[in-house]
Amino acid sequence: MVLHISNARRIISPNRHGRACPWACPGHLHPLWSALLCLLGLLLEPATATAQQQFVVKPVVEKKLGQLPEGPLYWRIETFPSLVLAQTAEGPASLSAEVAGKDWLFTLGPKGGSTPGGTEVAEIGPVPPISAPEYLLRVNSAGGPPGVKTPVHTHPGCETFYVLTGELSQKTPHGLISVGTGQSMPGHEPGTAMEVSSSGTSDLNALVMFVVDATKPFSSPARFE
After folding, report:
1. For site-directed labelling of 170, which of 65, 88, 159, 187 has its Cα 20 to 30 A away?
2. Do the domain assignments include residue 73?
3. Global confidence as pTM
C-alpha cells in the first residue's frame, strides 16, 4: 500500500496578461476567443490538480521478530526528548523514529506498560492474534488532502492507526469507522479487506503500526464481497 503523489507537470504558456494558460493561446485566433480559452483553462486547472492528488504512504521504520511478546498485545506510543533517548529505550518489540518533528517510540506489548523517560501518547489494542513463522513490525506515515483514498487491499496481519492531524476513515466488511486528530483505531483480523481515506476538511497525517506475517506479501489487492 505504498502510493506517491505524481510529479508530472503540464506544459503551460503565459498569456498576454502574464498569467499561465494550460493551453497556448494561438496568435491567429481572434483576441476574444484566445482570452476565453485561457480563462477556461484557468478555471479547470484546480480540478486537474486535485485529480492528480493521491493517498500517500511512506514506510518509516521496521523490524523482524521470530516471536511476539506473550498475552493480549497493545501498541504503546510514546514521545521522547530526543531520538537518541528513544533508541536507547528500545526493547525487542519496539521501534523508534522521528516523524512530524517529534521523536517516537512504538512498542508492541502487554496493556499498561511504560518506558522510563517516555511520555505516553496512546495505547491501542488489543491487536488481533496472529501466528506466523516470522513477524514484521512496521510503522508507516500516511495521509493526504481531503477526499483521497487507498485502493481496497489486505495485509497478512493487523493495521493500527493514530491520527496526528485531519480525519481518517477505514471502510471494511464490518462497516465504516472514522477517527480525528488525537484519536486512534485498532486493527482488524489478518486478511480483512479495507479502504482507508482522508475524510476530514484538512490534510490527514497519521501514524500506522503493523504486525504482519513477514513471510507473505505485505499488501495485496482485494475487493469487497
Report:
1. 65
2. yes
3. 0.78
Residue 222 CB neighbours (<10 A):
16
- In a domain? residue 1: no
- In this structure, is residue 139 part of a structural domain? yes
Q: Say if residue 72 is in the same domain as residue 114.
A: yes
Residue with cell 505485505: 218
**CA angle centred on 136, ends 209 and 162, rounded to 5°:** 0
Cβ atoms 72, 157 nearer than 8 A: no
CATH number for the domain harbouring residue 72: 2.60.120.10
Dist CA 43 CA 32 (whole Å):
17
Which cell numbers in the block locate residue 131? 501466528
Please tell me whether residues 122 and 180 are part of one structural domain.
yes
The residue behind cell 506517491 is: 4
Is there a single domain that holds both residue 69 and residue 151? Answer: yes
* Domain span including residue 150: 58-221
Query: Given strand 94-99, what is the order of strands in its sheet?
Result: 94-99, 102-109, 74-80, 119-124
pLDDT tens sequence across 139-163: 999 999 999 999 999 999 999 999 9
Q: Are residues 183 and 146 in the same domain?
A: yes
Which tens digits make up the pLDDT trace of 91-129? 999 999 999 999 999 999 999 999 999 999 999 999 999
The gap from C-alpha 108 to its chain's centroid, in whole angstroms, comes to 19
In our burial notation (b when 16+ CB lie closer than 10 A, e otherwise), range 96-122 reads bbebeeebbbbbbbeeeeebeebeebb
